[in-house]
Amino acid sequence: MHLNLDRLQPTPLVQQLTEQLQAWIEQQRLRPGARLPSIRTLAKAQAVSASCVIEAYDRLVASGWLVARHGAGFFVAERKPGQQADAGSAWGEAIDGSWRLFGEGHEALLKLGCGWLPVAWRAEAELAQAVRQVSRGEPEALFDYCPPLGLASLRLQLHKGLARLDINAEPERILTTQGISHALDLLVRTLLAPGDTVLVERPGYYNLFNLLRQHGVRMLEVPRTPTGPDVVELERLLVEHRPRCLFTNSLYQNPTGTSLTPKVAYRLLELAREHDLRIIEDDLYADFQEGPATRLATLDSEQRVIYLGSFSKTLSSSLRVGYVVAEPALIARLAELKMVSGIGTCRFAEQVICQMLANGSYRKSIQRLRVRLGQHMAKLLGQLEAWGWEVLCEPCGGMFVWARSPGRDFAGLERLALEHAVLLTPGSAFDPQGRACDWLRINVAYGQDVRAQAFLRHAGRPPAA
């Protein structure tokens, strides 16, 4: 197999590998059922990490070029006449920077870097009860379209909840969406055009990076520090490039777990005013915080901040309910695009969320999650320190720790993790250009699993000379 990966290209290695594997299958005219090299064999031959090969294979599975057989490997899929495959459509980070975590053949592995909570932690009973109540209610919930702005009763509940955070969000300033990713897509298509320049955090949310690429938007990288975006670098980029928007997390940033400090927040708003910058504040993890916190939308007096929220992480990824808070004129434009592109959102899902907000069951489930996450966070941070790991910061909440084991590269960590039945999410997945990185995102909710404990303990030891 002859592949030519160019490490000087801006195209990430995993994308090059995916495209070249697809071309190789076509050029060799491989028959369905032909077996591809094993993950380890191909990784060694191409001098890439095993995770790079896993990701490339999984993209080709998702786009129909390959099939995965548990315990046997990857094989050329049978393709129907005229069937088209698009490797780009299976872009690996489309879901939370961790598409490979969903791939076939990984079910038995502990996904230590995943972006969701264990099912056992979710409010299963409360959610089931809300579903039953909505199902027995008015038939509109089951059969009617949702209004363009979203369900009025849900937007009223959101208004009340945001007021407790000191965010001014009247119902007419709220638009419901199918989660944060949908909200980001609507905003990118409404506010930006191909060739526009924006600011993104590094490391940051890879699904956002891919979305911006798809729309031809140029990204400028702002390093994420323990106190928030690097405001010195941000100001330099503003002066030199005059970008349109900044995309940022305020609380428990994905993947670093860091949160804005008041000093950084005020400086961000000053710079936004001086340089006519719109800030898109993704507060996906807002409900993991109890008590006061620094949010840009709370401090914003000039409506430069567009605020995003969601219930995907705290309640259910399947319900796909999120929202945007912005000035009414922008909300109207977003609502029009929302209806044109998707005929609105799911009325049933919005009624379920509204039911849980109204009867208090969501609040109680969140309180349990906060306590549990806090306990696991504190315990894991202590263990990482004892085992010699380095962390960027000690998060005060949320579910992510950004850590590395000094002296070890990702390839070595990945091999060790697989020996302990653990699947890692590489730090390169959170880099806008997919560059190699020895930092890892660790989800604390899975940190006390015996497999995670064994891996973290062994990986923290200095590698043998």
UniProtKB/TrEMBL annotation:
Residues 11-79 form the HTH gntR-type domain. Pfam families: Aminotran_1_2, GntR. SUPFAM superfamilies: PLP-dependent transferases, Winged helix' DNA-binding domain. GO terms for molecular function: transaminase activity. InterPro entries: Aminotransferase_I/II_large, HTH_trans_reg/aminotransferase, PyrdxlP-dep_Trfase, PyrdxlP-dep_Trfase_major, PyrdxlP-dep_Trfase_small, Tscrpt_reg_HTH_GntR, WH-like_DNA-bd_sf, WH_DNA-bd_sf. Keywords: Aminotransferase, DNA-binding, Pyridoxal phosphate, Transcription, Transcription regulation, Transferase. In the C-terminal section; belongs to the class-I pyridoxal-phosphate-dependent aminotransferase family. This is PLP-dependent aminotransferase family protein. It comes from Pseudomonas oryziphila.
